[in-house]
Amino acid sequence: MEHIPILKMGDFLLVSIQVDMHDRLALTLQDDLTERIVQTHPKGVLIDISSLEIVDSFIGRMFGNIAAMARVLDADTVVVGMQPAVAITLVELGLSLTGVRTALNVEKGMALLQNGSADRESHNGRPED
Amino acid sequence: MSRESVSKLPEILRKYERELLADWMEQQLASPTLRRDLIKDADLHTQSQEFLNLFREATQKGSLVDTSDSYWEKVRDFLEPLSRSRAEHGFTPLETATFVFSLKQPLFDRLRKEHGRDTEGLAEDLWSTSVLLDKLGLYTTEMFQKSREAIIGRQQQELLELSTPVVLLWEGVLALPLIGTLDSARTQVVMENLLQRIVETGSSIAIIDITGVPTVDTLVAQHLLKTVAAARLMGADCIISGIRPQIAQTIVHLGVNLGDITTKASLAAAFAVALQRAGLTVQKRAGNEPPNAR
What we know:
CATH architecture of the largest domain in chain B: Orthogonal Bundle
Largest sheet of chain A: 5 strands, mixed
Number of strands of chain A: 5
Structural class of chain A: alpha/beta
Shape of chain A: globular
Distance between the termini of chain A: 39 Å
Helix content of chain A: 40-55%
Largest sheet of chain B: 5 strands, mixed
Strand order of the largest sheet of chain A: 1-2-3-4-5
Helix content of chain B: 55-70%
CATH superfamily of chain A: STAS domain
Number of helices of chain B: 12
Order of helices and strands of chain A: EEHEHEHEH
Low-confidence stretches of chain B: 1-5
Low-confidence stretches of chain A: 124-129
CATH class of chain A: Alpha Beta
Mean pLDDT of chain A: 85
Number of domains of chain A: 1
Oligomer: heterodimer
Order of helices and strands of chain B: HHHHHHHHEEHEHEHEH
Distance between the termini of chain B: 84 Å
Number of helices of chain A: 4
CATH superfamily of the largest domain in chain B: Globins
CATH class of the largest domain in chain B: Mainly Alpha
CATH architecture of chain A: 2-Layer Sandwich
CATH topology of chain A: Transcription Regulator spoIIAA
């Protein structure tokens, strides 16, 4: 069965989606990712969707769900590299992914996660925002 | 066909071409709808002569009832650019149509003289000539309207492109000064431009300045929120600036919820916030007076 690789990098998990998402793959990713979060206790999850060109409402909702699940498991989620067309589509579908953090590219996303975790430590475990 | 065959119109046009042209010119020059500021008498003369020529040729061969056949093509081909150029030069539809309609008087005069006491034939001929010229006149008006619509369409397109510039204020800081009303079509263009520029410049802050937006109603606010949401999805924060006092009042009275979007009264204030977020400060250099303005 097809899987999207989930890479561990220090305190973070890195998911780079390089293929067209279909519903089955999205569900597999959701299963795999929650599994990995429980196993490795990452501080944050970074999902790179810069190669993703087509989204539908299901995939859009999946991102929201994945982020919400990661938050429940105490990991920040950052979605990075969304294409303009994808962003417009999601907004038109009414999915503005409130609660999901976003960044322009992997570099900025990583910085965001690192700052976020630093803030959390300095705030005695109290999440920011 | 028998009615047409007795029509004296083709004959008159052939015999009295010069006189007709003279009468027609007189008619046009005396008309209150003549625009001396827009067209020279000589040009009008050339146009009239050409039209009369084509009109004569068409009446010799073509039908006197139906102006849509191939014989009348040349006349139509002549009237089309004429209407277009008049539309572009700022003539009114009335002034443009008068060009054709003013030919009625000289033609009717000639017809009356030719028919003499034959009132039956005269009435017949007057009617057919009148219908013919009406058709041509209406065609002129239609072409006029069409070219006006084309002009309006082009201007709208230009306005759309002109009014949605995305400017790079600083490395990582974009500004989008909006001018004019935000409708769905413009929002789409604005959104696409902004997102495209965010990708190109790698900017993480975008300032949307609505100083030039005359009114903000619930629909405009919704469009703004959409743009902000799309930019946020890509990882760029938006600041809305240039909110005038009346607009602030309207927004609150309408109960529009701008959510957690940062709003500032002026572009300068928004830029200061953007610099702060980017970790930059603007400082005055000590002991260095700015050069005097010359």
